[in-house]
Amino acid sequence: MRALIQRVSEASVTVDDEITGEIGAGLLILICAMQGDSEAEADTLAAKISKLRIFQDEAGKMNRSVLDISGAALVVSQFTLAADTRRGNRPGFSTAARPEDGKRLYEYFAEQLRALAVPVATGRFGADMKVRLLNDGPVTIWMDTDDR
Prior knowledge:
- The structure is a single chain.
- By secondary structure, the chain is α/β, with parallel strands linked by helices.
- The radius of gyration is 15 Å and the shape is globular.
- Strands 1, 2, 3, 6, 7 and 8 form a six-stranded mixed beta sheet that branches. It has a two-stranded antiparallel ribbon with strand order 4-5.
- A hairpin with a 5-residue loop joins β4 and β5.
- The N and C termini lie close together (11 Å).
- α1 runs parallel beside α2.
- The longest helix is centred in the last third of the chain and has 17 residues.
């Protein structure tokens, strides 16, 4: 699985002029299931992200997690994280999981974060979404379970 994590002061996602999810301080997590991914990859990412120390402590050092700050996560599916740009000018997405697997793993990932005591809001899988965020830092982290 791939995730692009952004530390935010606030974030929201809108589908058809309706806000489907919004958070205050926390993490915007764009997530993509890849072919061959399973619940094990979602478990790994959820555990790592929930403890990722990218929020400032009293000394101004990135030393606190989303749990430490009582923050939340806005989880948005984004299959374009699977983009292969090695050939030509049009990205290929053939390495992304099939939609039914992607949806299942996206929902499972969000549930795993909730199980780890992170409040979670979500977008809508497969929808045309408008994402608003106030990036804090900016701090943006790329994670891929294949990089382990």
